[in-house]
């Protein structure tokens, strides 16, 4: 799947514009191992080099939606893994 297809998937699931913007702004392939870059935009969890996994994008979008983050909020994320969710939160 390509990034544009993932964005369309998230739009069809009716995530808010700020969530779509975050996913469109951050390149997931920068957070996955080289041998999995061709799956970076699939809506699936991917293993990372640290014996953990990167959650699937729709799961992350759901978590971010439930957080209801405002621009003025300060967030402390402990154990951020690959940093992908933190990068999305920054948007």
Task: Describe the protein in words.
- By secondary structure, the chain is mostly helical.
- It is 40% helix and 4% strand.
- The protein is built from four helices and two strands, in the order ααββαα.
- It has a two-stranded antiparallel ribbon with strand order 1-2.
- Strand 1 and strand 2 form a beta hairpin.
- Helix 1 (3-12) runs antiparallel to helix 2.
- The two termini are 23 Å apart.
- The mean pLDDT is 91.
Give a quick summary of the entry:
The protein is mostly helical and 91 residues long. It contains four helices and two strands; from the N terminus they run ααββαα.
Question: What are the salient characteristics of this protein?
Answer:
mainly alpha, two-stranded antiparallel ribbon, 4 helices
Could you outline the blueprint of secondary structure elements for this entry?
Blueprint: H1 3-12, H2 17-25, E1 46-47, E2 53-54, H3 57-67, H4 84-89
Antiparallel strand pairs: 1-2
Helix pairs in contact: 1-2
Percent in strands = under 5%
Query: Largest sheet, order of strands side by side?
Result: 1-2
Which structural class best describes the helix and strand composition? mainly alpha
Order of helices and strands: HHEEHH
Give the CA-CA distance, first to last residue: 23 Å
For the largest beta-sheet, the strand count, sense and barrel status come to: 2 strands, antiparallel
Mean pLDDT: 91
Rg to the nearest angstrom?
13 Å
Work out the number of β strands: 2
Give the count of helical stretches: 4
| Shape summary | globular
């Amino acid at each position: 799947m390509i990034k544009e297809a993932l964005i369309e998937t998230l739009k069809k699931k009716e995530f808010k514009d700020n969530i779509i913007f975050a996913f469109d702004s951050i390149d997931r392939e920068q957070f996955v191992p080289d041998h999995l870059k061709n799956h970076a935009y699939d809506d699936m969890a991917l293993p990372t080099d640290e014996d953990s996994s990167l959650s699937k994008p729709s799961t992350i979008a759901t978590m971010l939606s439930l957080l209801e983050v405002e621009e003025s909020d300060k967030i402390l994320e402990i154990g951020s893994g690959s940093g992908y969710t933190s990068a999305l939160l920054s948007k």
